């Protein structure tokens, strides 16, 4: 098959690899959401999946939002206490899904520039070293409510 048929097949192939998801280079963003405490929250945790479909490693180097400062955190349990520390960057290995989720790597939204509540949406911009910037809307859900 040559000509238009080949092109159509290529387009269909592209669509099955996460059509509609925000994308930075070979990295698709899925399952993105903030979690916030129901009352008087001063921070929100950001969870998402980075699905790397390519073959060359990428690196998450920065994140920002339209509602406050965003940092990349790692967490680990020490003497029964959850400790978080900021990461400069986060490596995104090729051919794998990197999950930012509760108790592991996650994003932290702080220093709110407007009041935020469950049901709101915050625009998040991720900057990847290779893929470049991608901006998308992330809904806010209640903390601990899976
Ligand atoms: Cu954190």
Rg, alpha carbons: 17 Å
How confident overall, as mean pLDDT? 89
- Domains, number: 1
CATH class: Mainly Beta
CATH superfamily: PCu(A)C copper chaperone
Instruction: State which percent range the strand residues make up.
Output: over 45%
- List the secondary-structure elements in sequence, H or E: HEEEEEEEEEEE
Provide structural commentary.
The chain has one domain: PCu(A)C copper chaperone (Immunoglobulin-like). About 5% of the residues have low confidence. The longest helix has 13 residues. Strand 2 and strand 3 form a beta hairpin. Strands 1, 2, 3, 4, 5, 6, 7, 8, 9, 10 and 11 form an 11-stranded mixed β-sheet that branches. By secondary structure, the protein is mainly β. It contains 1 helix and 11 strands, in the order H-E-E-E-E-E-E-E-E-E-E-E. It starts with a helix and ends with a strand.
Topology:
Elements (H helix, E strand, L loop, with lengths): L3 H13 L6 E2 L2 E10 L6 E10 L5 E8 L3 E10 L2 E7 L2 E3 L4 E4 L5 E5 L10 E8 L3 E11 L4
Parallel strand pairs: 2-11
Antiparallel strand pairs: 1-2, 2-3, 3-8, 3-9, 4-7, 4-10, 5-6, 5-9, 10-11
The protein binds copper (II) ion (CU).
The site of copper (II) ion has 4 residues, from strand 9.
Concise overview:
This protein is mostly beta strands and 146 residues long.
Give descriptors for this structure.
single chain, 146 residues, mainly beta, Immunoglobulin-like, 11-stranded mixed sheet, 9% helix, 53% strand, globular, binds copper (II) ion
């Amino acid at each position: 098959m040559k000509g238009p048929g080949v092109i159509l097949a290529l387009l269909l192939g592209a669509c099955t690899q996460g059509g509609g998801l925000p994308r930075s280079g070979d990295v698709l963003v899925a399952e993105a959401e903030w979690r916030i405490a129901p009352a008087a929250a001063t921070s929100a945790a950001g969870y998402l999946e980075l699905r790397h479909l390519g073959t060359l490693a990428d690196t998450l180097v920065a994140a920002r939002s339209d509602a406050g400062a965003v940092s990349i955190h790692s967490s680990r349990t020490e003497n029964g206490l959850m400790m978080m520390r900021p990461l400069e960057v986060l490596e995104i290995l090729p051919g794998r899904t990197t999950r930012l989720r509760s108790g592991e790597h996650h994003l932290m939204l702080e220093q709110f520039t407007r009041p935020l509540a469950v049901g709101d949406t915050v625009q998040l911009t991720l900057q990847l070293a290779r893929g470049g910037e991608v901006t998308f809307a992330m809904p806010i859900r209640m903390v601990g409510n899976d």
